[in-house]
Structure formats: C-alpha cells, structure tokens
Amino acid sequence: MFKIAEQTKGKMVPEKTLFSEGQTSKVAITGLRGVGKTQIALELTYRTREKYPQCSIIWIPATNVESLQQAYLEAGRQLGISGLEEEQADVKKLVQRHLSQQSAGRWLLLFDNTDDINMWINNAGNENKPPSLIDYLPRSSQGCLIFTTRNRKIAVKLAQQNVMEVPEMDKDIATQLRCHRRRKASWYEKWAQNSTFG
C-alpha cells in the first residue's frame, strides 16, 4: 500500500486519506526543484486510477495564468461542461461548479507547480486583479485536491496540515523513481521513510 511518512509520530498515513469522508481532501507536496514532487503526484494519479477506475483525474499546470486557463478549458471540455465557449464564460467557475456537484462522481484535481503565491492569495478589494485561484477550488466529499509547490507558505495555505515535505532523493531512489512504472518497483516505501508529512 502507498504510504506517506507522518512527521509527528513516525507512522505511515495510507493512501486512502486522499479521499476523506464528508469533505474535500487536500494534500500539498513541497520541496526543492527537482526532488520528485511531480513524479510523486504522477504516481498518486496512477494508483488512484487503479483503485478507482471511474475517477476523473484532472492535471492542471499552474506555472502561469495562461497555462492554467488553457488546462481548465480542456478539463471542462473533457468533463462535458456546457457554456465553456461563451464569450464571457468564467471557465474556472464552471469547472468548480461541476466538480462541486455530487453527480460529478469521484475526482482528483492536481495543480502542478503552484509556486506563484500571487495567483493563489486573496485579491479582494483589488479591481485590477482577477479573483484568487483559491476561490475557484471545488468542494465535494468525492474530491481530492493535490498541489505540488516549492513554496511551503502556499502549501500550508492550500492544504493546512496535510503538507508532505520531499527531501532531496539519493541517486538510487531517483533511479527507481524514473523506472518504477515499468518494473512496478516499490521505490516509494523506501523513499517515504525519509519524508515527512505534517
């Protein structure tokens, strides 16, 4: 079973915590550039798909507003949301509404590279800036939000206590990470012993 090291007790948190009963689950994966945050997120999506074949998995690159907007538009199309092509359509709001409905089913929404705090913090009262992205996050007991970021402040803001710190990987674990899908290696259990969650 996929496990994440829990910082405070030295225990492992099972992957079933990705879908909590009664609320939207949130997890942030944080660490330096190149330590494997995106690869860990990719592994989470593979395992989620294996466990929940009907789960909608949506990958949103959050490196800048343009890539994020394009990814939201494509996600909306894939989800079959109407009204996306209207001139004044707020695509992020339409996707949020859709995923917040119980009829949307189980979903995992992954924001990769959420490093720009100005995209995520509250811009209330500033007419020149669009609403912050945190206001567009869907809420559903069938949903899970995962964020990858180098910015711990954003990680805590978005996922509260569910922040996974990724240390630099040694060469052996990095090699296993690159090859794990082909060999079905259990690289993660070895790596998780050196990671912290909390």
TrEMBL record:
Domain of life where this protein originates: Eukaryota
Domain NB-ARC intervals: 16-179
Transmembrane segments: none
Lineage: Eukaryota, Fungi, Dikarya, Ascomycota, Pezizomycotina
Record InterPro entries: NB-ARC, NLR-like, P-loop_NTPase
Signal sequence extent: none
Pfam families given in the database record: NB-ARC (PF00931)
PANTHER family reported in the protein's UniProt record: AAA+ ATPASE DOMAIN-CONTAINING PROTEIN-RELATED, ATP/GTP-BINDING PROTEIN-RELATED
Protein name stated in the entry: NB-ARC domain-containing protein
